[in-house]
Design a protein that fits this description.
- This protein has 10 helices and 8 strands.
- It is α/β, with parallel strands linked by helices and 325 residues long.
- An 8-stranded parallel beta sheet has the order 2-1-3-8-7-4-5-6, with helices on both faces.
- Strand 7, helix 9 (256-269) and strand 8 form a beta-alpha-beta unit.
- Helix 7 (202-208) crosses helix 8, helix 8 runs parallel beside helix 9 and helix 9 (256-269) packs parallel to helix 10 (288-305).
- It is globular, with a radius of gyration of 19 Å.
Length: 325
C-alpha cells in the first residue's frame, strides 16, 4: 500500500482514560476536543473523517500495585483495547488520531499501529522522555513509562508487569526522536544516553531553531527511504503559557509557533500515519480561559498535522478570480 494515499483519510479514536497518572480530569480530554469542533474542522479542511467513538474501559477491581507501578492491570487492559481499535483503523487505511487521555495510552496506540506498519518512525513531542522502567520510576505512574514498554532494547530489563503480557516491544531506539525535553529523570537520562536515542531537548531547540530540528529529525528517521510516521504529542511539550490545563506542566517549553511548525513539517512529508494528542486535562485549568486556550491549542496542532497552514489555504481546482454565478 502507498502510505501517502491515505493522507486525508482520518480515524478519530477517543480514549478517555486517566489511570496512568494520579490527577482526575484527563479522561475528559476527548470530550473537550470534540466540543471544540475538532471533527467538524477536519471535515471542513477536506479530511474524510470516520469517528470510532470514545472507547469505554473496564474497571479492574483490586488492581494492586506491582512493586511501585500503579494501576497496572487497568492500564494494561486499556492499552490492549486501544491497540485493537488503532489496528483496525490502520487496516482501513486511515490515519489513526487518538484523543487522550494520559500518555500511557501510547503503549496501545503505537503497538496497534505497528501491527499494520512494522517499519514505524516515531516523533515524540514532550517535556518528558516517558522512558522510565518499573525499576527506575520514582512515582509508579505508567504515563511516565510507555516508551520503555515499546522499545526492543529494553525487553530484557522489563519485569513481567500484570496486565501487559499482550505487549511485544515493537520499535527500536533508532526509530524514535524526542523533541521538547526539559524534565528528565536520572534513570531516564541514563537509558536515553546508553541507547543512543536521538533527542532535541529545549537546549537544542534554542541552539538550532525548530526548522533545523525538524530537518535533522526527518533526515535521521527517513534517510533515503519513506516510512510511516507516528507523532505522539503530549501537550505539555508546549510551554504552559499555551497549554496550562495539563497534569505535569514544565516552564520553558515549545512555543505555539514551534509546535505548529513540527506539525506542518510532518504534514509536508505526506507520511503521517498515526497521531496521539495527549494529556489535555480540562479540570486542571485555573480559569475557563486556561481550559479554552489548552484545548484550542491542541485543536490547532491537530489541524496543522492535516494541512492547515499559517500561510493560508485554498481549495485545489477553485478559480477564486472567476467565481461561479
Amino acid at each position: 500500500m502507498d502510505i501517502r494515499n491515505k493522507a486525508k483519510s482520518v480515524g478519530i479514536i477517543g480514549a478517555p482514560f486517566s489511570k496512568g497518572q494520579p490527577r482526575g480530569g484527563v479522561e475528559k480530554g476527548p470530550e473537550a476536543l470534540r466540543n471544540a469542533g475538532l471533527l467538524e474542522k477536519l471535515i471542513d479542511q477536506g479530511c474524510d473523517v470516520k469517528d470510532y467513538g470514545d472507547l469505554s474501559f473496564d474497571d479492574v477491581p483490586n488492581d494492586m500495585p506491582f512493586q511501585m507501578v500503579k494501576n497496572p492491570r487497568s492500564v494494561g487492559s486499556a492499552t490492549c483495547k486501544l491497540a485493537g481499535v488503532v489496528e483496525n483503523a490502520q487496516r482501513q487505511k486511515r490515519i489513526s488520531v487518538v484523543l487522550g487521555g494520559d500518555h500511557s495510552l501510547a503503549i496501545g496506540s503505537i503497538s496497534g499501529h505497528t501491527m499494520v506498519h512494522k517499519d514505524l518512525a516515531v516523533i515524540w513531542v514532550d517535556a518528558h522522555t516517558d522512558i522510565n522502567t518499573p525499576w527506575t520510576t520514582t512515582t509508579g505512574n505508567l504515563h511516565g513509562q510507555p516508551v520503555a514498554f515499546l522499545l526492543r532494547e529494553l525487553k530484557e530489563k522489563m519485569p513481567s508487569v500484570p496486565g501487559f503480557s499482550w505487549v511485544n516491544p515493537c520499535i527500536s531506539a533508532k526509530d524514535i526522536v524526542y523533541i521538547g525535553l526539559r524534565d528528565v529523570d536520572p534513570g531516564e537520562h541514563y537509558i536515553v544516553k546508553s541507547l543512543g536515542i536521538k533527542c532535541f531537548s529545549m537546549t537544542e531547540v534554542d541552539k538550532l531553531g525548530i526548522g533545523k530540528v525538524m530537518e535533522e529529525t526527518l533526515s535521521y528517521l527517513l534517510g533515503s527511504r519513506e516510512r510511516p510516521i507516528h507523532l505522539s504529542f503530549d501537550v505539555d511539550g508546549l510551554d504552559p503559557s499555551y497549554t496550562p490545563a495539563t497534569g505535569t506542566p514544565v516552564v520553558g517549553g515549545l512555543t505555539l509557533r514551534e509546535g505548529l511548525y513540527i506539525a506542518e513539517a510532518i504534514y509536508k512529508t505526506g507520511l503521517l500515519s498515526g497521531l496521539d494528542i495527549m494529556e489535555v486535562n480540562p479540570c486542571l485549568g485555573k480559569t475557563s480561559e486556561d481550559i479554552t486556550r489548552t484545548v484550542n491549542t491542541a485543536v490547532a496542532i491537530t489541524q496543522a498535522c492535516f494541512g492547515v497552514s499559517r500561510e493560508g489555504n485554498h481549495k485545489p481546482g477553485t478559480d477564486y478570480l472567476n467565481p461561479r454565478q
